[in-house]
Amino acid sequence: xxxxxxxxxxxxxxxxxxxxxxxxxxxxxxxxxxxxxxxxxxxxxxxxxxxxxxxxxxxxxxxxxxxxxxxxxxxxxxxxxxxxxxxxxxxxxxxxxxxxxxxxxxxxxxxxxxxxxxxxxxxxxxxxxxxxxxxxxxxxxxxxxxxxxxxxxxxxxxxxxxxxxxxxxxxxxxxxxxxxxxxxxxxxxxxxxxxxxxxxxxxxxxxxxxxxxxxxxxxxxxxxxxxxxxxxxxxxxxxxxxxxxxxxxxxxxxxxxxxxxxxxxxxxxxxxxxxxxxxxxxxxxxxxxxxxxxxxxxxxxxxxxxxxxxxxxxxxxxxxxxxxxxxxxxxxxxxxxxxxxxxxxxxxxxxxxxxxxxxxxxxxxxxxxxxxxxxxxxxxxxxxxxxxxxxxxxxxxxxxxxxxxxxxxxxxxxxxxxxxxxxxxxxxxxxxxxxx
Length: 436
Description:
By secondary structure, this protein is of the alpha/beta class. It has one domain (about 5-245, about 355-430): Amidase signature (AS) enzymes (Alpha-Beta Complex), CATH 3.90.1300. The chain is built from 14 helices and eleven strands. It has an eleven-stranded mixed beta sheet with strand order 1-3-2-4-6-5-10-11-9-7-8, sandwiched between helices. A hairpin with a 5-residue loop joins strand 10 (about 395-400) and strand 11. The radius of gyration is 20 Å and the shape is globular.
């Protein structure tokens, strides 16, 4: 079976929308959905290693209890994964670090509790990089095992890409969800910072930057999950894309070298949108984004050194990258931190004026396809400007490079118009499922 055949089979087996429809018509029971997820996990986990801990009996017991219970909505009986910085009652939240080993959560994080309320069933905890920073875990990219899945939501992205679960929770502080979504060829939504997806019960790195996120196979599935999580659970309204969406095209080349294949993928995506009526809006990116990246780094280091102050007292049990981040943060003056926050506030006015005029900013989700090697997780720089501004970020899958590796397109939207951003993403995804 070719990679493309496996990907198609995975879409059929693990699409959230398809599973929800089957359960709605009585063609699938929650216990069957969970059993199927566990069978796929057993088949893929030896080579992908996306899971820290699987609660087999707990998931099956919860599913059996729902088999003949009143249906709670579109997520009823859907198995999902939880990034191991997010509390899941009765299981440890270990954050990819020996310093948190065996620290069992007394309660669910509110986002997990909301999913349970909707009838979704947690399968277990997925791999994260150490404290959601750079030091990678053992996870491999399902598309090519010798390549990184990205970080820090590596396990969640790989579990969805491998077809084990149709939905997984992640988080983002720099490029922690956008990058693995792009590398693994799945859809990812980073919610607005402080927005409707609650980060209580997350092991935070930077309170200004931390945001919750969700990963699914497609943007259609993302929209289904997001609407269920943020409002009365109901069938999703029909997708309403603007007749002539306005897009600000962002090349990202002022920040980092972008691969030829990624540049081509963005061009093809934009050209397809224009052919369907989209209008393009100019913006002077080099005047803004490098400054935002620098400010993001200052804010993250300063806040991380304080959030992990106790852990920083045990440097021999931390990775070199995390020790370096905490040392940098401890040496940042309060005035420099406040200056970085002031840069964010000033830039928000400029970007919000742009987002009042356009439907989305469109550009690359990562510099290219997932790099070969497992000792690093790739550059998060293309997410940093938008994370500093607290904006929602959508990764649209579908493009492939010349080696058949995934390339994600990034859409940045207005924090008050996430549903519209998802609707636009569905339309863009529909035109993106072909190689560059």
